[in-house]
Amino acid sequence: MHDNYKCNMEELEQLGIIPVDYAVLRSLFSDYRSPRNKIANLEQAGKIIRLKRGMYVVSPKISKQLLSVELIANHIYGPSYVSMESALRYYSLIPEQVYTIRSMTTIRSKDFENPIGNFKYITVSDTYYSIGIKQQTVENKYTFLIATPEKALCDMITATPQLRIQSEKALIAYLEEDLRFEMSGLDNMNTDIIRKCINTGKKKEVLKLLLKLLQA
To answer: For the chain, which residues make up each domain, given as ranges?
Structure first.
């Protein structure tokens, strides 16, 4: 059993940072009398982390790799892509550490909490969802879906309740003071993505102000 355990731990390590479902873990420990107990013990020992019911990720102390909250967010609930402050922080466009990972989805809104963090999913329409998403590949190891910087900013504007912006001056104040946004990041933004977001109709006037700001 000791050799089996060593072998299983190596296989566990090889799973890396990709979230896996219960069936994968069960097959890994199928030579144990009770794979269910084995999985529960591994979770208790902190060797695997439960992300939600039936989904786990190997602990960094076993995989020897840093976890990706973006990859985890894509796996927990979908279809979804990481956006808003989470994406802006990923691109170093805002300085704040982000504790809630926010994503957009075409299905109903949902929240999850696990040892990694809080994961929040916000519903948007199918047509709006498909604009400005990119596949981000990290070190040729894994890929996740994330909003482009432009889309993340549009999502901030359209999905933040009670956000009242009625002038370009107010928009600049929101970016600089509320978000502490790196204003030089506006220089490289793709105005086509903003235009497409405007055409879907949500908070049109504010997005038009953003477009104007980018074209100034």
So the answer is: 2-63, 69-215
